[in-house]
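Re-run requested by the PI after the first attempt was lost when the workstation crashed. Everything re-entered from the original request form. Ligand of interest: adenosine-5'-triphosphate.
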Amino acid sequence: EQEKEQKQEQQDDKTAAHVIVPYSVLCKTFEACEATTKRLEITEYLVTLFVELCPDYEGLELGIGESLLMKAVAESTGRALKVIQKDYHKTGDLGTVAKNSKSSQSTLFKPKRLTVTYVFKTLKRIAEVKGNSAQANKIGLIKGLLVACEDNEAKYLIRQLEGKLRIGLAEQTVLSALAHSVVLSKPESAKMKTEQKEERLSYAVDLVKSVYNQLPSYNMLIPALLEHPLNELQERCQMRAGIPLKPMLAHPTKSLTEVLDRFEGHPFTCEFKYDGERAQIHKLPDGSIKIYSRNSEDMSVRYPDVVEKLKKWIKPTTSSFILDCEAVAWDCEKKCILPFQVLSTRKRKDVKEEDITVQVAIFAFDCLYFNGESLLQESLRSRREKLRNGFQETENEFFFARYMDTNNIEDIQTFLDVSIHSNCEGLMVKIYDGEEASYEPSKRSRNWLKVKKDYLGTGGVGDSMDLVVIAAFYGKGKRTNFYGSYLLACYDPDSGDYQTVCKLGTGFSEENLKDFYDQLNQHKLPMAPRYYQLGDNAETPDVWFEPKVVWEVKCADLSISPRYMAGVGLVDETRGISLRFPRFIRVRDDKEAEDGTTNEQVNFVCSF
Ligand code: ATP
């Protein structure tokens, strides 16, 4: 079967004028990237790979459970499941266990070598398997791949299946490498002088990154890069409804005077900062509606009621659009916003309209795309105008974000008080006119400032942090049956590592303790993985977890400590930042571990 499929693929590859790439080439690149932490070296490995090939890409939701993978490894290598489990507890990396299990296996027949296309297609099939015998079918497909693995292929295949390649490969590095490879693969690049080449490379990197920000789809970006000149890229890869953009983010500030100082001389506008969940709402030209989370996850099934009601807010002249909004819990009788905690009780998946108990209202604060045209480069003033012209408020359902344009500090203070009385979190203050008032996808911009009620005038730490739970300590006394405290970490996007930042044991309700115990036990690891940076002489936790769960945490102060590693290298060569008196605020299930507070942000708050 495999042979038949591979033949078909070779045919497909030929017709598509693609190169047939052995999977081993990709795994060797993974190995080289994993062996270094230097971004330049990683870029170089990727450039070499991309110059030679053109991998197709599509977002796959793999994340196959480890028990299923262990079963597949056992069955495909003829080793007992118990032995595999034991090895896994010793090494902590199922990929390495798979590789070692393979190398101790003698095979009679040599299966055909895997190609990247074949592995990719099979991974896709595995991700898509549904139905009664899904488990058995998945195991069957995985076994098929494992049997054909050689050298280090099993190691990376298993890691890809687990959904955690973790070789320190950040998205920005992939984009730079893509841009470099496009320039360097052109014959004329060999004749260029160093200076000219550098200029060309830097132009390509900026261009590829900015185009990807507007159209984050490798499926569209890569063919355009391969088939057309660079200077046509922007035009060929324009943003469109149906492809979610990474949202623009704001910088924290501590006081209104700080806002006025920062924006001196620039017209700005103040908006209510609604306390709910970010919702990017798309209407495609075919009339379909999609709602995406802060994370570009499709949330349309979470909000069937919003999708249904949406027709009423759209004026007849409006065809396609992308709106940036906040979805908040809403009391239809009292006509007021309900606190975030109410929204978090609404079901996340498989929501049926008749079962909905928590109503939501949408507050739109930006319009990024309208009737087939990108508005990203336009000023906020002009985007707001289009938003207000193209849509209409509907009772209990859809509103424009409340705003006030003034630079009088007393008026802003009053507006802030009103926002807080309306169950909002504070204000968002944004530059209104000129180039700086454009929409910057995926950027934490200084042109948007957030002023939260919680950190005004406290003299304490500026912003709450969204930290990843990486380990736990067993509880005592009342908490005997649960975890008593947790070890939290921030994310370093450069290395892909998690750096410890505090031990947390305060702010939990009894219900929280039980829920978190059950939830986190699903993510147990046999030991601390290599991508956790731990401080010296730090207390050793009882249980380690995969980086899956994100919690919002507040603290009274920060200190520098050798026992924690947050921001190490930024504040001090060997010591990191740690939170003093941290307190649990809420679960951030709209954030993945990689979207949590970064080491740089912790450092920023520290210097705040
Ligand atoms: P961040 O999004 O900055 O990483 P976060 O997710 O913890 O941090 P906040 O710090 O609370 O969120 O602030 C930003 C969020 O506020 C936005 O992502 C958006 O969901 C929400 N928001 C509410 N009202 C507005 C508004 N008027 N303009 C922009 N964002 C708003």
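Saved to the shared folder this time. The radius of gyration is 26 Å.
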